[in-house]
Amino acid sequence: MNRKWIVLGTALAVVLAFVAGVAVFTNRSNQEVKQAAQINNEALVRPHSPIFGNSAAKVTIVEFFDPSCETCRVFYPIVKGMVNASFGQVRLVMRNAPLHHGSDTAVKILEAARVQGKYWEALERALAAQPQWASHDRPQPEMIWALIGDIGLDMTKARADAEGPAIDQLLRQDIADMQALKVDRTPGFFVNGTPLREFGEAQLKALVQQELKKSATP
Amino acid sequence: MSEHRAAAEVGKGRNAAFWLPLFAAWLLALLATAGALFLGEVMGKTPCVLCWYQRIAMFPLVLVLGVGLFTSDVRSVRYALPLAGVGWSIAAYHVLVYWGVVSKDLVPCGKGPSCADADVQMAGVVPIPLLSLAAFTGILVALWVARARARRAME
Prior knowledge:
The complex is a heterodimer of chains A (218) and B (155). Chain A has 218 residues and is an alpha+beta fold. Chain A has helices spanning 2-39, 70-84, 103-115, 119-128, 130-133, 143-147, 155-163, 165-180, 201-216, and strands at 51-52, 59-65, 90-96, 188-191, 194-195. The longest helix of chain A is centred in the N-terminal third of the chain and has 38 residues, at 2-39. Chain A is globular, with a radius of gyration of 21 Å. In chain B, 69% of the residues lie in helices and 3% in strands. Chain B contains 5 helices and 2 strands, in the order ααααββα. In chain B, strands 1-2 form a two-stranded antiparallel sheet. The longest helix of chain B is centred in the C-terminal third of the chain and has 27 residues, at 128-154.
């Protein structure tokens, strides 16, 4: 009997130590990410970053976004809905975080559409068909060209832009910012510079509400 | 006589001599499993191919030896030894790869992180494959002691 309790007690002690370790580690890495966001504040929004909503909004959601990421796809209408429901108080800034294989090509195509003012149209087409082109083991981001053929782009120019140095430079900047801000998974949210550490729709909404309240009482 | 023998083999005896080394082996497996899960799931280090094979050998040891401890069943040593042996071999190979004794080109690491990467270190000092090898070595020794004690008890 006694020995069974020794086994159970040891197992419990190891589980408790593990849980405590998780708490300590999460706390420490949260601090690190918060500090990174404070130190690299200028890395959150760049002049080239696409903005959705009122550009003078008090609350800015920065989203590090990967067009191949399924969770990004699910969150897209949620975040867009939050901006639309805010009466101009919340805006969304998109940053590229090509973490998946093939995402860099997809980002370049979307950025080529942005050059012609069609970023959001192209993005929505690409997201709608994401299951077709963004399989993780065999991605076919080139398929996006066919998806955005009829949104009114000068396709010759877009194809040239996608391969051009300007978009390549922009993508490098986004990746450098992503690393500086310690974003290692997508979607990565920052609300007025505060990183969303516990991921979830409710948590994101709560963080936005908190920043809205802060901005209302100066 | 055969009745006595069966009882000794199953080890129902309260003071079964093999229990303590069996417990030591189980504790090592438990700590190694918790450590591997912490590195992978909490610290976000993706296990390389060789790490996965070592995990495949290590994780079941917790359950096999745990059940053995719970019922004071010395036969669990017999089931655990092949797992520990295979795990030890892979860990030894991994250490050789990590130290560059075995050429990197021979490593079956197509996708995912490299098994020879300098990143596979704990606190920047102890390489993870070496920790794994130490754990498997400890488990093998403890299991061997448990088996020897059980045999002595049977004579």
